[in-house]
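User: My collaborator sent over this chain with a note saying "see what the structure looks like." That's all I know about it. Can you take a look?
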Amino acid sequence: MTTETILVKNAYIFDGHNPELSDRSSILLADGEIKDISTGDIASGSDHVIDAEGRTVIPGLIDNHIHVYIPTLDTTALSRMPDTYIAQYANVFLNSTLDRGFTTLRDIGGGDVGISRAIDHGMVRAPRFYYAGKIMSQTGGHGDMRPGWEINPWEQLCSCGSYSTNLTRVVDDPFEMRRAVREELRKGSHCIKIMGSGGVASPNDPLHHTQFSEDEIRAAVDECTRQETYVSAHCHPAAAIRRCVEFGVRCIEHATLIDDETAQYVVEQGAYVVPTFAVIHALHEEGAKYGLPPVSQEKIRLIYGQAMNGLDIMRNAGVKMGLGTDLLGAQHVRQCTEFAIRKEVFTPFEILHQATAVNAEILMEPDRLGCIREGAFADLLVVDGNPLEDISLLERDGAALPVIIRKGEMVKCELDVSEGAVKSFSWPSD
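Assistant: Without extra context I'll predict from the sequence alone. Here is the result:
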């Protein structure tokens, strides 16, 4: 962590919570934290001083649904790819995501201790990284990518049911679930994800199918609760959302086919939802081009026409919604389209709140991430304009972000910097 101090002065501040900007203020950063915020002068003796000249400073953006280890839309081909190739894709993904202003990510399936340690040790230029490890799937569920016609040799020799990939673990009873959850948490996973319904990318499970028994889901929830974390569930249909929340799941991914009654139930139970619209539009428009199998193309056509209605339903019910993108392979460059899609339903403040403060709550870091306050992490963006009036400033792949600060380090700076600092900054080598 850097020991240098940074003073950002003459800035209007969106703090992640208040729909109004502050008066022109100064923000002092040191030791990776926000040390002081003042509308007056801060006598800091800072190593670097950035004059924002009336621009807006916002918390670093958070994407709470990404997969750094999925470089292709053909998930059956993924199992045959070398790990070295997948790791290089992750490197490209993480670099470009940071340049778009996302200073924190939650990898909700596949991300592991290896990439996390590489980031922490400065080997990979990347946002902060939270990960769920391998996803829990039932046999034939959304995480089981074996074609229906495939027979593995070991299946003819034993009935152990053992099957896993770089992304998933197949578990088929509460005991297997507990053991698998404990193993992923042992390896540092920040939460656990289960497959609660059918999905788009998998070959054998219709979207409307619910997955896992009550005992299996409750086993995962119990293990996570006792280790002070939570379960998130992939769910498309309302029935899957309802039963997962009823059985203790804290966060629902996608929720594309939610209905009014289920949305109200989610609110009553205090659960969160992370809708992912960038991926729906990307797969609908370009899925075939990038190798999405025909059966999956049909599934995406089914949910494309209904998903926006789900956003309206959740907004009207008051569901606590975060922001995620879920983009796979070459489509990861469309990350900022999530803002453009959401503005059809939400105000700029609502979108910014989702991408900062609400996502921080989901990550169980409400006082450290997604906010600008004393003691919070020093993850900040300087924006050329006011995104509370014009959210399209965040749709430009970082072009409207002259300054990006992550962990108190300037990973991008296109403004003049005084007090002996240079204008351009490179990523630290240690």
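A starting point for your reply to your collaborator: The mean pLDDT is 91.
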